[in-house]
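Aim 2 progress. For OsmC family peroxiredoxin, the working sequence is reproduced below.
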Amino acid sequence: MPSTIVSKGSTTWNGDLFNGSGTTRLDSSGTGSFDVTWQARAEEHGSTTSPEELIASAHATCFSMALSKELADNDTPPTTVQTSAEVSFVAGTGITGIHLTTTVEAPGIAEDDFQRIAEAAKSGCPVSQALAGTEITLTASLA
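Predicted structure tokens for this construct:
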């Protein structure tokens, strides 16, 4: 049985929501800390991040890994998977949708098989599953 891996992140927030700011850290890896503000979340990013940008990065990574596995299981392993995620946020409403865009180099795969596998990876990706209450769309292309 696989062991449980616990990933840790933390944030320190100072002040109220609209005027305050914070720092979020990737504690498990120690690879970075990032400034966060309400303005970056609800108005424009500037040089700070938002929870939605962090979700987008996590989702793009998870989907790429899931698609890579699905393609390898199909005996058409990819040489490259490039994925971006766009997480839409409306203040007062929340996250309103996520759109994944992926371009893949996978020699020998037919377009219809690729589309079926990409959709399966979208559904099977653990981050997609965690965000199941949000509409997730996908544009998948072969390079």
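The chain has a mean pLDDT of 96. This observation will guide construct design in the next reporting period.
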